[in-house]
Amino acid sequence: MKLVIIGGAGFRVPQVVGAVATAGPVDTVALVDTDAGRLRTMRAVLEQLPLGGDLLLSTHTDLAEALVGADFVFCAIRVGGTAGRVADERVALDLGVLGQETTGPGGLAYALRTIPAMRAIARTVRRVAPQAWFVNFTNPAGIITEALRPVLGERVVGICDTPIGLMRRAAAAVGASGDSPDVRYDYVGLNHLGWLRTLEVDGVDRLPDLLSSPDRLERIEEARLIGPDWVRQLGALPNEYLFYYYCNREAVARILAAPGTRGEFLAAQQDRFYAEAAGRPGDALELWRETRRQREETYMAEARAEDEQRDAEDTDGGYQAVALALMTALSGGEPTAAIVNVAGRGAVPGLPDDAVVEVPCDVDADGIHPRPVAPLAGPELGLVQSVKAVEQLTIRAATEHSEGLAWEAFATHPLVGSVSLGRRLLDGYRARIPEVAAALSGDAG
Questions:
Q1: In this predicted structure, what is the pLDDT of residue 312?
Q2: What's 61's DSSP letter?
Q3: Looking at CB atoms within 10 Å, which of 62, 125, 147, 187 has the fewest?
Q4: 150 and 23 in one domain?
């Protein structure tokens, strides 16, 4: 089977290729990227990994060429590069608003400039490899996945590892394995905005026991980030990104007090890695591993106390394992369960049936099947409905090249809530990020 990775020079590619090479049904991997120099560096890293002798690896700068014969397409691109991410964060922070890659106005700016490029990619996939499953890693994953459905239909799915990681940590805290068929769970929401609400082990919901135990709850990073008292008040375990909603003022203050934003840190780190690895190709793998360690250990540092370290099991970046299980099941191997981004088809009452949601799904050779989940209610439903409405405004703004719809999306986001501030955000992003201006003018493709 052939896997094509779009964004093949991306920093996380070795994790994905390493996983599929050791345990997956794939025998051919094609990396495609617009940056030929970084692609050479990434190939040097991969050639030093113990991938086995049976994997055929190729690199391409031509997308259509790479896609010929593809069974699966993984896509993780960053339109505007790390400079775009820096602007996503800084434009908002300069106005006193959360500056974060996917949550809040930064995520909307990211989506606006990414949707045109991703839809162009999707059209090429539909033309060259219509049989392929398209697995989207490109952030903000929920918005991008929904924007691709008119082109790719049911053959596109979005993946994020935060919800399945939360479930597995919760299961381990009560002495169970999250991968066991005896464990069932209810998780519902949007990408980076969801809640684990039940955790059944052998038919008994163990989540109340977990929430009532200070020692067990201390083992859950999400509870430490947001606060165990609030988690108990909710009666559910929130996705870690809800820190930015529940502790918004604290998050903004900590980011502003830091020596630099996450985007600035990664931009400097990745530029240094690719430059050093290009000059020392024989050490590419060693340089990549050290850079990855630093990257994972500093993830969401603004949410933790100064002396708090991430748990070792949280620094592995497990989305490649989710992707591998999904790919194996879809290709006729062992069925699996996964929390992924798909059209809800009524799974979340209160949202349109075609809205992409993040819910547990059963995956097999016949496709991806959302499980029934309990309805959302109260503040959680209100927040999800509000954010989904903003996401859909953003998709329309990018596809209709509408400045007015983009303004409405920024202004009505729950973390903005101001017409005048929404306008200043829109103007700031258009001025700082050429790809945002191009998307709204219709010049982005």
A1: 46
A2: S
A3: 62
A4: yes
Give the span between the Cα atoms of 393 and 403, in whole angstroms: 11
For the chain, what is the domain count?
2
- Measuring CA to CA, how many Å separate 365 from each of 74, 160, 337? 18, 21, 13
Number of Cβ within 10 Å of residue 183's Cβ equals: 20
For residue 149, give every residue at least 6 positions away whose Cβ sits within 8 Å of its Cβ, in sequence order, or none: 156, 343, 354, 356
Please tell me the distance from the alpha carbon of residue 426 to that of residue 187, in angstroms, as a whole number: 33
Separation of alpha carbons 316 and 8, rounded Å: 20
Domain termination site, one of 260, 279, 303? 303
Domain carrying residue 13: 2-158
- The answer as to whether 95 is a domain residue is yes
- Dist CA 422 CA 418 (whole Å): 6
Q: What is the pLDDT of residues 295-330, one digit of tens each?
A: 888 876 666 555 554 454 444 446 788 888 999 999
Domain annotation covers residue 212: no
Residue 141 and residue 284 in one domain: no
Q: In whole angstroms, give the CA distance from residue 3 to residue 20.
A: 9
DSSP state letters, 393-436: HHHHHHHHT-HHHHHHHHHHSTTT--HHHHHHHHHHHHHH-HHH
The Cα 197–Cα 119 span in angstroms is: 34
Note the pLDDT tens digit of each residue in 261-295. Answer: 999 999 999 999 999 999 999 999 999 999 999 98
What mean pLDDT is predicted for residues 406-424?
98
Whether residue 50 lies inside any domain: the answer is: yes
Question: What's the rounded mean pLDDT across residues 391-418?
Answer: 98
In terms of domains, do 256 and 148 share one? no
